[in-house]
């Protein structure tokens, strides 16, 4: 969410009515999240000036660990230097820390492609935004899910119940530090996740959703202490419930 919001912001800056705008003091502390959107807190160090040049050799974009040769345009400006400066700063301050860690395994290669392409400045802001929107579409639609055996049949569902909230086993990347709370596309995906975790015996799906509209599922190591909740469904492994009265 943070990276996509940042890319949308940089897309606007690259195509603003004032021309391409560079953020000269590009640091994470210069941004805040407001209603799920990343915003710049200080525009004092923004500039629409692009470096003047006479030849391509005048247009090297320098960073502490990398440099990029750019083209000198026919009007004597280093072509796209503001856009590329913003994009590489997004790569080194945001993408490298946030992109590799929390996506479903099937989407990680696509995010690695974005990471590598922006790190080498092979993508401009237009291509980067399109790549992010493609990943978001796959994520929201569930098209990233690979065909696999149907596992939900191995679970008993109880509508209108959930387990008592409390600390349970933890997983990555959980929305809660007290247990294993993950976003899912469907109960079938939740069943696959539960089957992949040795501790998991049940999971609960409520009406709580993430910014993409995906429901949240809480994965549990037991299914005892059920309490009524009209907005929840608890799914219990048949193997865990065998010999028990539901």
From TrEMBL:
Presence of keyword Kinase: yes
Secretion signal, residue range per the UniProt entry: 1-22
Residues covered by the FAM69 protein-kinase domain: 2-116
Protein name as annotated: PKDCC kinase
GO molecular-function terms, A-Z: non-membrane spanning protein tyrosine kinase activity
Keywords, alphabetical: Kinase, Signal, Transferase
Gene Ontology cellular-component annotations: extracellular region
InterPro entries associated with the record: FAM69_kinase_dom, PKDCC
An example Gene Ontology biological process: skeletal system development
